[in-house]
Design a protein that fits this description.
It is a single chain. This protein has about 500 residues and is an alpha+beta fold. Helix content is about 30%, strand content about 30%. It has helices at about 10-55, 60-70, 165-175, 190-205, 215-245, 250-275, 325-330, and strands at about 75-80, 80-85, 85-105, 120, 130, 135-140, 140-150, 210, 280, 285-290, 295-300, 310-325, 340, 350-355, 365, 385, 390-395, 405-415, 420-425, 430, 435-440, 455-465, 465-470, 480-490. It has a 6-stranded antiparallel β-sheet with strand order 2-19-23-22-21-20, with no helix packed on it. A hairpin with a 6-residue loop joins strand 13 and strand 14. The longest helix is centred in the first third of the chain and has 49 residues, at about 10-55. The protein is elongated. It starts with 8 loop residues before the first helix and ends with a strand.
């Protein structure tokens, strides 16, 4: 075999070194290529971002002019409506009884002896009904009862008294089966005495005398009348003897005249004493209420306890709603106006009518005026009046009992167009220099000035930001038209 040697040692060394270097440098070349690729991609991203920035910052002259122009005017419009226009006043009210009474009875028959009043019996508990003639409670052994009547109790009703309160007493006694005989209405005579005596007896009590000295006064008057009558008899005999004796009878005749005059006076005093004597109805034993059944709202003492202020409170009569009008609304509300009431708590609603509006403002105080009872005070649980002008609203129909004592919303119809009319927002009306009142009717494009027309109108009543309009001068305006309310410019 022929063995060939390298031409020279240098050639052989070079070739071996190159082969070794090629094998060792292959991985290093691949990393370099990857780094170059990354830099290329990064450069492309940078260039793209720069292009975007340049594109947003460099604008054409037309674009600059468009951006500098003001935005289009903003148009506010509303539609013409045809409906009944009403002006309303909304206030808060409280459902309460027509009449609320608070009673602080006196010591009754023991008052003259300086006794302090004490509760001796309680017949009616809070929440119970009261009928005419029923005894509610006893104070120092004396009854407190109720009769029908609109006029409050303000005095003791005694024999010989006259007035409307006496007439109420007579009517109440008659309703309970105790007629007052031939006494005229409003006169406390013998028939009323008999009726009062019968009524108290039926309750199980003895009536109080108008004056503890009544019996003594009557006896004294009777004795004086008897003495005067005997004196007349004596002078008559003396006159007879003088005439029979033929003497001067003038002196005896004069004595008889005086005696007869004294007798007439004595008989008159006797009649007066008898008329004044008899049973009375004390103010601290009687309640006049407007209707039955009434209801006991509170009793603030138990048997054996001293009588506190406002021992008993009673409500009576049909429910009403009491509210207060501020000064700026007072003249808008009149008696007879229709009212819609709503209880937000229960969802119940009803119609009502304004019954009264106070002519003068009242300060913040108890909302119910003092009425009836021995104390003449308003019940402590009566609704509070925040001040203003007192408003009383009467429901058209009986209210649900659960509304009593609750607050309700009252919407008073202060004015109404009566029939459907064209209405627009008040801000849609404009007045020109020529004195004409107009509205601007918009076309399909609200912003198009050429698609608008002005319609002359006559304004009517206004309420809640709306006003009644009637086209004049041949202008056309219809339900559903859109009218310009406002146009805001930059």
């Amino acid at each position: 075999m022929k063995h060939e040697e390298p031409d020279s040692p240098g050639e052989a060394g070079t070739t071996g070194a190159a082969d070794a270097a090629g094998e060792a440098g292959a991985p290093s070349s691949l990393g370099s290529r990857r780094r170059i690729l990354i830099w290329v991609v990064a450069g492309a991203v940078v260039l793209t971002g720069a292009g975007v920035v340049v594109a947003t910052t460099i604008r054409s002259p037309s674009q600059v002019a468009a951006d500098a122009a003001p935005p289009p005017a903003s148009v506010l419009a509303d539609r013409v409506e045809r409906r009944v226009l009403t002006s309303s006043v909304v206030v808060r009210g409280t459902v309460t009884a027509e009449q609320t009474l608070a009673v602080t009875p006196g010591a009754g028959a023991g008052a003259a002896a300086g006794a302090k009043p004490v509760v001796t019996r309680v017949n009616k508990q809070p929440g119970t009904a009261v009928q005419a003639g029923e005894v509610l409670l006893e104070v120092s052994g004396r009854p407190v009862f109720a009769l029908a009547g609109a006029l409050p109790v303000y005095r003791d009703l005694k024999p010989g008294a006259t007035g409307k309160d006496v007439g109420q007493l007579q009517q109440g006694l008659k309703a309970l089966g105790h007629p007052t005989g031939a006494d005229p209405a409003g006169t406390y005579g013998s028939g009323t005495k008999a009726a009062v005596t019968a009524f108290y007896t039926a309750l199980g009590y003895a009536p109080r005398p108008a004056d503890p000295a009544d019996a003594e006064n009557v006896r004294a008057a009777e004795d004086a009348a008897d003495a005067a009558e005997r004196q007349v008899t004596t002078t008559k005999n003396a006159l007879k003897k003088a005439k029979e004796g033929g003497g001067d009878a003038s002196e005896a005749q004069l004595q008889l005249t005086f005696a007869q005059q004294d007798l007439a006076k004595a008989k008159s005093r006797l009649d007066t004493a008898r008329a004044a004597a008899g049973p009375m109805v004390p103010a601290d034993e009687l309640l006049f209420v407007k209707g039955f059944p009434a209801r006991v709202d509170a009793v603030k003492a138990s048997v054996g306890e001293p009588v506190p202020e406002s021992l008993l409170s009673v409500s009576a009569g049909a429910p009403v709603i009491r509210a207060s009008l501020p000064a700026h609304q007072k003249d808008l509300v009149k008696p007879g106006m229709k009212v819609q009431l709503l209880s937000e708590a229960t969802g119940l609603s009803a119609t009502a009518t304004v019954e009264s509006v106070a002519a003068d403002p009242t300060p913040a105080a108890a909302g119910t005026a003092p009425t009836g009872g021995g104390s003449g005070q308003a019940a402590p649980d009566a609704p509070q009046n925040p001040g203003g002008y007192a408003l009383t609203v009467k429901p058209d129909q009986a209210l649900d009992a659960q509304l009593t004592g609750q607050g309700v919303r009252l919407t008073v119809t202060a004015a109404s167009s009566g029939e459907p009319v064209l209405i627009v927002p008040l801000s849609a009306i404009s007045a020109g220099a020529d004195g004409r009142t107009t509205v601007t009717v918009l076309g399909k494009d609200p912003g198009a000035q050429g698609d608008r027309r002005r319609v002359e109108v006559r304004a009517g009543m206004s309420a809640d930001g709306m006003v009644q309009v009637d086209p004049v001068g041949g202008g056309a305006l219809a339900d559903g038209d859109r009218v310009l309310v406002a146009q805001a410019k930059p």
